[in-house]
Amino acid sequence: MQIGAHVRAGKGLVPALAHGAEIGAEVVQIFTQSPRTWKPSQYGPDVLDAYREAQDQHPSVHRTFCHATYLINLASPDPELAAKSRACLDANLATAAGMGADGLVLHIGSHRGSGFDQAVPAVVDGLLGALDSVSGVAHACPILLENAAGAGDTVGRSFEELAEVIAAAGGDERLGVCLDTQHLWASGVPFGTVGEADAVVEALRSTVSLERLRCLHLNDSKVPFGANRDRHANIGEGTIGVDGLANLLGRVALQSVPAILEVPGDGDGPRAEDVAAARRTWELGVGRAARPGGGDVDEGSSAPDGTRPSDRTVPDARNG
Ligand SMILES: [Zn+2]
Ligand SMILES: [Zn+2]
Predict the structure, then answer these.
(1) What CATH number should be reported for the domain holding residue 286?
(2) How far apart are the first and last CA of the chain?
(3) Which of 33, 47, 201, 255 is least surrounded by CB atoms within 10 angstroms?
(4) Residue 174 CA to ligand 1 centre (angstroms)
(5) Exposed, middle or buried: residue 113 (CB in 10 Å: 0-12, 13-18, 19+)?
(6) What does the pLDDT average to over 260-268?
(7) Confidence of residue 4 (pLDDT cuts 50, 70, 90)
(8) β-strand 259-261 against 63-67: which pairing, if any?
(9) Closest to 270 in 3D by CA, of 2, 101, 22
(10) Which ligand has the nearest atom to the CA of 105?
């Protein structure tokens, strides 16, 4: 399994690769533009071309994913916000495609009480509109719908909801899924035991399909199981813990899917020691899975009571 990390893009985008390499990441994730403002990307075509070339030739960072602006809300019942969101998504996707990214990770948004079924047509419109807007670009880039932690009427809080959105989009091949371990835990899906982690894989298989799963966001949780809040903690410092994360990372069906850290580190994002911790956690999971019985001994608790919280502050920009 390739281990990756969310890194800062820097002025010219290309420094992101060096930062990824420095901390031992084989995959990097980058914001296509400022994550919390509507300000469009400042990257011109020459910068995008230079990034793609640098990525192609990089000795240790093999792939790039992009993360879309947090303000985008394709499910918004407010027409002005909905229009702004669609334009912003188009711009994000154009940058991601120009960079040659393997996917643009997107939080679908919140229907603000208008209801999931009501919101789906607008969501689908926004997704297909964006995908069509870059159809002339040589480097196609899928949109990867991220599972939500479940706060405030968010769309995509379960695999079923993600599958419904994809089905409503006609099962478009340019749509994939990103599975965030912290959001999964906070949305109330347990994987503290090997059996539960297996059930997660089966649930993915029977809803969005494993082919659509293009990346994992590997994060521990600052909030308890089922808390419905998006708060990332460093690996082993949260309420999921190394055991639960190892169970998921050890599943055979997930080995070709990269796992990207979005952890706070010591306040400035993933560090070398966070990447090393992720790799150790993966090794633990794979070793356990290789044991007779799939490692069904020494299982962790499936629903911890929220002790062992990390006292670190998650920077807003990495709450993805
Ligand atoms: Zn995210
Ligand atoms: Zn995430």
Answers:
(1) 3.20.20.150
(2) 21
(3) 255
(4) 18
(5) exposed
(6) 97
(7) very high
(8) unpaired
(9) 22
(10) 1
Residue 169: domain span: 3-318
Q: What is the pTM of this model?
A: 0.91
- The helix (H) or strand (E) run that includes residue 55 is helix 45-57
Per-residue H/E/C for 10-47: CCCCCHHHHHHHHCCCCEEEEECCCCCCCCCCCCCHHH
Cα 210 to ligand 1 centroid, rounded to whole Å: 19
Inform me whether the pLDDT recorded for 70 exceeds 90: yes
Closest by CA to 88, choosing from 120, 129, 124, 121, is 129
- Number of domains making up the chain: 1
Ligand 1 centroid – CA 285 distance (Å) = 24
Does position 294 have pLDDT exceeding 70, yes or no?
no
Burial of 232 (0-12, 13-18, 19+ CB in 10 A): buried
Per-residue pLDDT band for 297 (boundaries 50, 70, 90) equals very low
Distance 28 CA to ligand 1 centre (A): 14
Q: pLDDT at position 59, please?
A: 97
- Would you mind telling me the total number of residues written for the chain in this entry? 320
